[in-house]
Amino acid sequence: MPAVGPPHRRSLIAALVLALAAALLALAPATRAEAAPTLLSQGKPVTASSTENAGTPATAAVDGDNGTRWSSAFSDPQWIRVDLGAPAALSQVELRWETAYASAYRIEISQNGTDWSTAYSTTTSTGGTETLNVSGTARYVRVYGTARATGWGYSLWEFKVYGTQDGGPTLPGGGDLGPNVHVIDPSTPGIQAKLDEVFEQQESAQFGSGRHAFLFKPGTYNGLNAQIGFYTQIAGLGLKPDDTLINGDITVDAGWFNGNATQNFWRSAENLAVNPVNGTDRWAVSQASSFRRMHVKGGLNLSPDGYGWASGGYIADSKVDGQVGNYSQQQWYTRDSSIGGWSNSVWNQVFSGTVGAPATGFPEPKYTTLANTPVSREKPFLYLDGNEYKVFAPALRTNARGTTWESGTPQGQSIPLSDFYVVKPGASAATINQAVSQGLHLLFTPGVYHVDQTIQVNRAGTIVLGLGLATIIPDNGVTAMRVGDVDGVRLAGFLIDAGTVNSSTLLEVGPQGASADHAANPTTVQDVYIRIGGAGPGKATTSMVVNSDDTIIDHTWVWRADHGDGVGWETNRADYGVRVNGDDVLATGLFVEHFNKYDVEWYGERGRTIFFQNEKAYDAPNQAAIQNGTTKGYAAYRVDDSVTTHEGWGLGSYCYYNVDPSIRQDHGFKAPVKPGVKFHSLLVVSLGGNGHYEHVINDTGPSTVPSGSSTVPSTVTSFP
C-alpha cells in the first residue's frame, strides 16, 4: 500500500500542472486579441465653436504637428470636438496647451454628437502638456473650456485621443469581384454574345440600376465589336495598354437617341489597345465618359454616325496613332496624350501636355493649347500581376507631356488587392468606415450603394476606386463622403447620386479650415461624378466642397439634372455645384451644369482651371428666379473678390432658358480685376436664342443678342 501513494501524488500534481497550462492557453488568445491603445484622433474631422483667425483652424489641433495650433475667440465658453469615425473604447486624452490655456475645462464624450457626458473635469489646470486617463465608449470627444487662464482665447497645439476601436470581426481584404465584373481572357467562350447582352440592357438605360465592368486579361482578342452603353466600363488588365489588344472596335454611337450623342453619359474605356476594323474607332460621347490610357492604332471619330450633335468629352494618358475626328463635338479636353492630328473646332477644344495638338488659335479656330500640364497624376487602375490582382497607383508628374506608358515601365506603386476591402452591394456605411479605420483601401464593385452615414476617408494615402460606375446614394440628408486633411487620398471612378432628403453637401475634400500643405502628395478626384435628380427626386445645397490645399480635380461632371425623373426648379433644388476654399487647387476637365445659383465658386488662392464646360439651368421659370441682387443671373464661374491670384484656360458657358427665353444673364464669368487674376479663351453661347448673355466676363465681351438664334459664341481671348 505505501508504495502506491507517491505515484498517485505525482499524478495529481501532473494533472494540476496540465490543468493550469490549459487554463493559461485558454486565456492567451483573448490576451492576444486585445489591441493596444492607439492614437485615434489624428487627421479626423474636427470642429470648434470658433477660431481666432484663418491661421489657427481647428484642424491644426489634430494634424500631428506641434508647430500648428487651434485658437478660439476671446470669450467663454469655447470647445473643440473630434469625430473618431466610429465608437471607440477610450483610454487617454493628451492636451498640449499653448500659453493661452484653460484653467477650467471638461473632457466630454458622446455617441451621437448631441448628448454629452463628462469623462474628466478640472478647475485647477496649469496648462502645459496634460495626459489624462479617461474611460468610456464614444465616437465624439470634445474639450469644453469654461474659464481661460489669460485674456486670450483657448489655444491647443495638439488634442490627442487614444483608445481602441473594435468594429467587430476584422474585415478581410481581397476576394472575388462580384457577378457584374466580367473577367475575360482570350479563351473565354461567347465574348461577343456577352458584350451584346449587356449592351442591350444598357444602351438606353440612362437612369437604370444596372452596373457592369468588362475586364480583359492581357492577350489578343480578334473580331470583337464592344458597344459600350450606360454605366459600363471596359478596361484591360495589363500594366500597359498594349498588353491587351482588341483587333476590332470599342464603339459608342447614338442610335438609341436618333443619332444625337448629347446624352451619352456615364461610361469609360481604359487601358486597352484597339486596332479598328476600318481604321477608325468611334467614341461619340458627352459628359462623364472618360477615355483613359488607351492606344488607338488608327483614327478616332468623336461624332455619332450621321454627324449628329455631341457635347463634350475627355481623353487622358492616351495615344491615337491617326487623326482625331472632332467633327460635331462642341467642346473637348485632351490631357497628357499623343495624337496624330485633330480635324476641326466647334466651340471649345482644349489641350494640355498633348503631343501633336494643334496650336492655340482662339477665337478661330477655337483651340486652346498648353504645352504641359502643370501637375497631374493618373487614375489608379486594377491589373493582373501574374495571377494576382493589384491596383497600380501612378506617380505624380509636374509639367507633364505625353503618356506615362509609351517610353517604358510606368512609374508608381503597386498595391495588392488583399489591401483593399472589396465593397459589394448591401455593404453598410458602418462596415465601409470600419474597413478604412482598419487600414484598408476601398474597391467598390459595380452596383448601387445606399449609405445612412458619411463615408469617412481620413487615412493618408487611401484609395477609393469604383468599377462600373459604382453609385453611392446618401440617405436621410447625410454627406455621402468626406476626406480628411491628409496626404494622397485618391478618389476615382464612382458616381454620387443625391438622395430625396436634402444634403448640405455630397462630397467634401478636407474639413472646413483645412490648411495642411499637400503639394508633394495631393488628393486627387478623378472620374468622380455627382448627380442631383434624373433618376428620381434629389436635393443638395452644395454638391462638392474642396477645402484641402493642392487638390487635383481631374475630370468630373457635377450635374443638376435637366431631364429624367424628379426634375423641376424646386424638385431637384441644388443651389451650388462646386465650391473651392483650398489654396493651389488645380482642375483639369471641369464640367459643372444647371445649378440654381452659382455653378462654381472659387475662394482659394492660386487656383487654376484648364477647361471648363457649363450650361446654366434650363428650367429657371422667369428673370426674378435668378435675380442676384442687382445682377441679372448667377455667373457660371465666380472667383471671389478676396482672391488675388487665379488663372483659367478654355472656359465656356452656354444658356438655354427654354421656359422663359427672355431671361438675360449679365455675364457668364465673374472675377476681381487684379493683376494676378487671368483668363484665356473665354466664351459664352446662347443656344438657339433661348436667353442671352449681356457680356462674357464682368462687363467685358460682346453680348450674344446680335447672334439671335444662330448660336454664335461671344468670346474674350484674354482677361483682363
If you had to describe this structure to a student in words, what would you say it looks like?
This protein has 720 residues and is mainly beta. It has a domain of 127 residues: Jelly Rolls. It is built from 3 helices and 55 strands. The strands form 9 sheets. Strands 33, 34, 35, 37, 39, 41, 43, 45, 47, 51, 53 and 55 form a 12-stranded mixed β-sheet that branches. Strands 1, 2, 3, 4, 5, 6, 7, 8 and 9 form a 9-stranded antiparallel β-sheet that branches. Strand 48 and strand 49 form a beta hairpin. It is globular, with a radius of gyration of 28 Å.
Question: Quick gist of this model?
Answer:
Residues 1-35 form the signal peptide. Residues 47-56 have a biased composition (Polar residues). It is built from 3 helices and 55 strands.
